[in-house]
Amino acid sequence: MEGGDENIRPLAFPSTMNAIVALCHFCELHGPRTLFCTEVLHAPLPQGAGSGDSPGQVEQAEEEEGGIQMNSRVRAHSPAEGASTESSSPGPKKSDMWHPGYISHDKETSIKYVSHQHPNHPQLFSIVRQACVRSLSCEVCPGREGPIFFGDEQHGFVFSHTFFIKDSLARGFQRWYSIIAIMMDRIYLINSWPFLLGKIRGIINELQGKALKVFEAEQFGCPQRAQRMNTAFTPFLHQRNGNAARSLTSLTSDDNLWACLHTSFAWLLKACGSRLTEKLLEGAPTEDTLVQMEKLADLEEESESWDNSEAEEEEKAAVLPEGAEGRELTSCPAESSFLSACGSWQPPKLSVFKSLRHMRQVLGAPSFRMLAWHVLMGNQVIWKSRDVNLVQSAFEVLRTMLPVGCVRIIPYSSQYEEAYRCNFLGLSPPVPIPAHVLASEFAVVVEVHTATRSNLHPAGCEDDPSLSKYEFVVTSGSPVAADRVGPTILNKIEAALTNQNLSVDVVDQCLICLKEEWMNKVKVLFKFTKVDSRPKEDTQKLLSVLGASEEDNVKLLKFWMTGLSKTYKSHLMSTVRSPTASESRN
């Protein structure tokens, strides 16, 4: 329901229902007509909808209703129920033929609820008019009273509830009305059906109750049935002296009817829009979450076993021989093995490297690319520095490029550890590294030296005193990262880091999405090769489909496959075995 009029922007707002609510009437002289509709607008208001400089309008009092400030402005209307009447002093009390237009300001959302006879926007007028005609002609329930749904993508979808109002002067002693809610979102309208049905029925019951009291009072004073029987041969409409067009305010004897309807319709739009909200559904846990849960469960299990062993040691200590009290107990094996294998250690007191972008600025683009290539490929990354805090900070930043299950850290060691034990290793400068490791293309070494006077402020360290005193030398047995295109994910990471329009937080989210994308490819490859045992030719075709047929991408997928959770692997294996088991039973 959007048009090109610059002065009106209907149905494009947050926290409110994207709809128009209208009261319609089937006039015996004119057919289906719209009496009163409420729409939601952003400022500025459309011309004629409560503008202060329009003739025939006066401002009424302000009132508070349900959190909506009602700043109502009366506008003289000639509704479809009655004939046009001229008056120099407009207002609902001057004539039953007129009803006011209202504007309510929602303080919370700065949205205006505008009620008048017709929408001023041509496209909205056409949509409401068509919905009105259909609701009181072809789209009706059996018995002509009750709710019904109809509509299409072009003209919107409509919730319509038709009903009768008692009128002692009308043909059949009743008039036919409908309340309609028009919306372009079919699913939202269907989901709102129970809410709309209950609230609109409440409005209808109140109108019918008021009209019934007036009808009974009129019938008691002057029964119309007997009078009509006595004048059976007189033309029907002529005998009613032109009262066929009695207004709804007259039928209900309620001069504040339109103000009440405006309040009810405005509340309906706001309440129905706020009761259904969009929520982020996380779905199944990610692989990182599963791995973290498994590691936590392992740690708790090992801690329990260690507590049990400690209790046994205390029992034995009661019968130890003399001189045994001075012996030291060994450290907790569960704790030490978990820290070394899982890479979980206390975070550094001071974060030296703020982010991957910061590290790239400090190391320089070529050195960072070489380092990142080795990290993604699963090669061993060795940092040598006297500053333990710096090494831990570097590992904390670099590990964000890998799935949690692929990270094995020994933060700081007094001797070299083999690559199968860790892919991140921190060493003090005097610790020797074997020659075959230094010459290997499967390892990269970052040596942190004290900066010379000529290079006291390397690039990226001007504003960081903790790094300005260092210089970083990145070496590898094979400069492979500089010669090759590299894995696709590395190129995308570098593109995000070099894009200064992206904040650090946005880059972090981008990295999470990239890891999840490639972990999904890993899952497909694992299922295809390890579970289904497909031939190499089919595997190569699959890699082409995944966009990972290059050598570096294949190596990355194989390494990341080691980071899959035990839960996922066991789930796949169980789904493969279950059909076989069921067939064997048969």
TrEMBL record:
Region (Disordered): 47-100, 301-326
GO cellular component terms attached to this protein's record: centrosome; cilium; cytosol; lysosomal membrane; nucleus; spindle
Domain UDENN FLCN/SMCR8-type stretches: 93-565
The keyword Transferase is assigned to this record: no
Keywords associated with the record: Cell projection, Coiled coil, Cytoplasm, Cytoskeleton, GTPase activation, Lysosome, Membrane, Nucleus, Phosphoprotein
UniProt record, GO biological process: intracellular signal transduction; negative regulation of intracellular signal transduction; negative regulation of transcription by RNA polymerase II; positive regulation of TORC1 signaling; positive regulation of transforming growth factor beta receptor signaling pathway
Pfam families: Folliculin (PF11704), Folliculin_C (PF16692)
Family: Belongs to the folliculin family.
Subunit comment: Interacts (via C-terminus) with FNIP1 or FNIP2 (via C-terminus). Component of the lysosomal folliculin complex (LFC), composed of FLCN, FNIP1 (or FNIP2), RagA/RRAGA or RagB/RRAGB GDP-bound, RagC/RRAGC or RagD/RRAGD GTP-bound, and Ragulator. Interaction with FNIP1 or FNIP2 mediates indirect interaction with the PRKAA1, PRKAB1 and PRKAG1 subunits of 5'-AMP-activated protein kinase (AMPK). Interacts with HSP90AA1 in the presence of FNIP1. Interacts with HSP70, STUB1, CDC37, AHSA1, CCT2, STIP1, PTGES3 and PPP5C.
Protein name: Folliculin
